[in-house]
Amino acid sequence: MYALCMVAISFFIGKWMLAGFFIWLLGVALIFLPKPRRLQGKHISRLIFGALFLIAVQLALTFDPRKVEHGINTDDVLAILVMALLYGLLHDPCPVSRLYQKFAAQIAGFSYTLYLTHLPMLVFFSAWTNHRRQPSGEGFLVPAGILCLTVTYSYVIAMIFEHNTDRIRKRLETTFGA
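RESULT FIELD:
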């Protein structure tokens, strides 16, 4: 039944959106992939650094879409490389510092709000500044400023809403007796 619903929905959302769904599924697949038995210590570090290197190369190659876009779906390539990076990070036995743990928790604390709010803000700033070009050496400040403002906006929204979800839920439960 679910498969039939997915096929029916795929006719309405189009190829581009369906391709994005399969990229999203790569992230879900990380939950089900087995923990590597033979990859230990420096091997996982090599996997992580190799994936980071490949991501950097892939991004460098796709910086000018005219160079790479011929027959290669760069979104899929980048998704697979990021999945390899996340797989390595998930199974990395190296301990991390308290400072990094604190920073990671802070960043993760507003990632959902960032996910929800970034696109409307980027579209707004892009339209407002009439800046729709790829970032380059000479025009780097405008996109960097837009990025900083977008992340700051998302963080403020998270502080107002996402970080108060449990407190508001408890208040509603006590008020309405749920």
